[in-house]
Amino acid sequence: MRIHRHLFDGVFTDDWVGRWRRVNLIKKEPVLRGDSVPYAPFLLIGEMLDYEFDQEKRRQAGLPRTDRRGIAVSAFDFMSRLWQIHPFREGNTRTVAVFVILYLRRLGFTVGSEPFASHARYLRDALVLDNILNPAFKGPAPLRRFMERTLFNPSIELENLLKSSSMDSHRFG
Description:
- The protein is mainly α and 173 residues long.
- It is built from eight helices and no strands.
- The chain has one domain (2-13, 35-171).
- Helix content is 52%, strand content 0%.
- The longest helix is centred in the first third of the chain and has 18 residues, at 45-62.
- The termini are far apart.
């Protein structure tokens, strides 16, 4: 909530800034040809976030600290689950990106905001594809590619997912 308030104070209406949404959302996603991700029901936002933070604490406690990629995968999966809850009316992708940058730093990664800012559309589309229920679109590969580029290999190219998305799920596998 504090990150959202910091980012959007004076940008969104006061009743939206730093507050959980009080409506259910459907957002037509271009990368899904107009379909929507199933966002959390607004009445369950607090409980779902509490659950995810508790589960992430358990996961991180069980990860071997020598496997950097395993830690990164867990952090990006956590990011994806938080984003899917979509606790705010607007600004969820940016808020979750700032949160995950801070979280990754806490986990020992050196990461700045530049990859998140310069590939914001790719990141949003990758989060959408990671959270859609439709198996023709669903896939974690784009989010993994973003993670690899951001943390391990900045030379990895990130293609336009809007152009490459199709009903063929093998494109993301």
